[in-house]
Amino acid sequence: MPPKREQHKLHVSMIRNDTPSTSPPSEIAVKPLGALSTSSRGSSSNEGLYIPIAPAFLLANAPVPVDFYRLNAEQRLELFLKADSEVDSTVRRQVLEGTLRYSLYCAVADIPSVLKYQEEAIQSILQHAFLDNRAKARAVYNFTMNLAKDTHDHPRPLNVYRIGEQISLTLDWMLSDEKKILPLLLGMSRKEYSNAAHAVNVGHLGMALALELHGGKNVTDTLKTLAPGFFLHDVGKGFVRVDILNKPGPLLELEWVEMKKHPQYGNWFLEREKLLTPEARHIVLDHHERADGQGYPHAVPGSKI
């Protein structure tokens, strides 16, 4: 059982507002694109942090639930859509044509509202007849990123359930043309490291590997059984001490011992809450084992993994 402690915030790549402003601000100074990767280490609040959203969600047939911002040519965030406003026809056409040139963001503090909005919109977006697969893949990737961040920041049964629902919602679309859609999702892998990006990248790579090894008439059931384990393999990091998890330099020996417990913490949490299938929980528990028996937490050889 992991030690009890206060909920912490994991590292996530996002934009930080470096200029105090009124709320909601009409324009926000941000760092240059090459230096957007920041950490919430040592922060007691998500105030002033912003995270990307996919333009495809502007096609949802509902007013936007929170303020949406765009990144302009001066590398500043400016208000694009106010909360409760409708998306106009010009913007919808630009999204459909792939000509919307803005990078869109929302406040990290608004993620719960945005996730609900995205969950209600994702199915209609995937079924949209005039939206190409690249735009759909970007919507799926961004949605999964935000969901993964919320789940790893707050490892709760509801968030794990939402990961499973997201997989179910997108699986039929992905399998409708897997040879084209999976490469699109894999090609969107974030180059920088964050817990959320890593979870999503491993999730899509795991699905690609499962398709290669277990493709066939029962592939949908196989992926529904295994895929949550791919996306949630690091959920146990939500129970590792925050000073260890976010330490900027190399870990000391005792700190490394604690870090290496995260597969067991994840398995403990999922078993306690009766979440996921036994196969998916094995992925969480064994994802750091190695064929040569030099992995952790149990150092079992490949034949017994």
Q: Which secondary structure elements does this structure contain, and how are they paired or packed?
A:
Layout: E1 15-16, E2 27-29, E3 49-53, E4 68-71, E5 76-81, H1 89-97, E6 103-107, H2 111-126, H3 133-153, H4 157-176, H5 178-187, H6 195-214, H7 219-231, H8 242-245, H9 253-259, H10 262-272, H11 278-286
Antiparallel strand pairs: 1-3, 2-5, 3-6, 4-5, 4-6
Helix pairs in contact: 2-3, 2-4, 3-4, 3-6, 4-5, 4-7, 6-7, 7-11, 10-11
Description:
The chain contains eleven helices and six strands. Helix 2 runs antiparallel to helix 3 and helix 6 (195-214) runs antiparallel to helix 7. It is an alpha+beta fold and 305 residues long. Strand 4 (68-71) and strand 5 form a beta hairpin. Strands 1-3-6-4-5-2 form a six-stranded antiparallel β-sheet, covered by helices on one side. It has helices at 89-97, 111-126, 133-153, 157-176, 178-187, 195-214, 219-231, 242-245, 253-259, 262-272, 278-286, and strands at residues 15-16, 27-29, 49-53, 68-71, 76-81, 103-107.
